[in-house]
Design a protein that fits this description.
The chain is of the alpha/beta class. It is built from 11 helices and 13 strands. The strands form 4 sheets. It has a 5-stranded mixed beta sheet. The chain has a 4-stranded mixed beta sheet with strand order 8-12-7-11. Strands 1-2 form a two-stranded antiparallel sheet. Helix 2 packs across helix 3 and helix 2 packs across helix 4. The termini are far apart.
């Protein structure tokens, strides 16, 4: 089959066609989304518990109706979305989300919040914030199916754009124009050392003192640039001797005297996973903090279920209290 496809109509044009002719159904869109996400009709059929011919028929109908090729079929490798298919996948997810909003609205009329909500959380925050945040929300709204996932800052941005999640709990690290970010709490940077490190006995330490010390860097996209920029803004260069993308690996290395690290997250538990003690020390001077907040796709109208969840986050995540974390100057020891 040829991979050439006609240009995909604009989202508004698609909506107009659907609204006027009513030749597609939400069920067909659901089948298409499943196939697009799984990259296989067989896997999509298993995921949503429907027959493979039904999914194939829905895809063929959508391709005829919109005049575009959505997939390239590979006999041995399954399906690959065309450029038009990728755009249609995103629009289909948005349309299904809007349709889900009708169920939420119906629940509101019956004084009951219902529906599905997918929440992403920054991987460094998730172990502390996600459990309490999710449990409290589900307890208040038992009719809502809440799905939590974690990832790096860039992962969450990508998932928002692909409508794989509805909202992300993340940082204000290089927020692009198509993402709406609402800050909730500020996390200043601090130095983290082992209990027998010489800095552990100090009330504060400045960047100049740190440049000669070995540093263990949290090596996540955008996060690493933030930590390095703290030094570069003062004309300094950190002595990075080890890197890790897992926050707990960094903390455990520091607890085992590999060196210091700089962090913004302050878990209530001051120990690394191996039980060794960690000591947070104030970073002297004026430095750019990280801000925890709510990230969503920029849109004119948000579903009510998302609005309610955002208010839930505003209540639980503030400068005076964050689930699972120590705030302020208190060192948590």
């Amino acid at each position: 089959m040829s991979t050439t496809s006609r240009p995909l109509p604009a989202a508004g044009a698609c909506a107009a066609v659907v609204g006027k002719q009513m030749r597609i159904t939400l069920k067909q869109l659901e089948y298409f989304v499943a196939a697009g996400e799984m990259g296989s009709i067989k896997l999509a059929a298993s995921r949503i518990n429907i027959s493979q011919p039904s999914i194939s028929s829905a895809i063929s109908h959508l391709e005829r109706e919109f005049g575009v090729q959505l997939f390239v079929r590979h006999h041995a490798q399954g399906l690959a979305l065309t450029s038009a298919g990728k755009t249609m996948l995103r629009e289909a997810k948005l349309m299904l989300r809007q349709a889900q909003g009708l169920y939420t609205m119906a629940g509101e009329l019956n004084n009951e919040m219902r529906g599905r909500l997918s929440v992403g959380c920054m991987v460094t925050l998730a172990p502390m914030i996600a459990p309490e945040l999710a449990h409290a929300f589900s307890s208040q709204h038992p009719g809502v199916t809440l799905r939590m996932t974690d990832g790096s800052h860039q992962d969450l941005l990508d998932k928002l754009r692909q409508v794989e999640i509805d909202v992300a709990i993340s940082y204000d690290l290089q927020v692009p124009d198509d993402i709406q970010f609402e800050p909730l709490a500020t996390l200043p940077p601090h130095v983290l050392v082992s209990r027998n490190h010489r800095f552990a006995r100090q009330t504060s330490v400045d960047l100049e003192e740190l440049t000669g010390e070995p540093m263990v860097l949290l090596d996540l996209p955008r996060s690493r640039e933030y930590f390095i920029s703290l030094f570069e803004s003062k004309g300094l260069q950190p002595n990075i001797i080890a890197r890790a993308a897992n926050q707990e690996v960094v903390r455990t290395m520091v607890a085992n005297n590999y060196g210091f690290t700089i962090a913004n997250v302050r878990p209530r538990n001051p120990a690394a996973l191996d039980g060794r003690k960690l000591v947070p020390v104030k970073l002297a001077g004026d430095h750019k903090p990280m801000r925890i907040g709510i990230s969503t796709l920029a849109q004119e109208r948000k579903p009510m279920i998302l609005t309610v969840f955002e208010q839930h986050c505003r209540t639980l995540i503030t400068d005076t209290g964050i689930p699972g974390m120590t705030v302020g100057e208190k060192d948590g020891t």
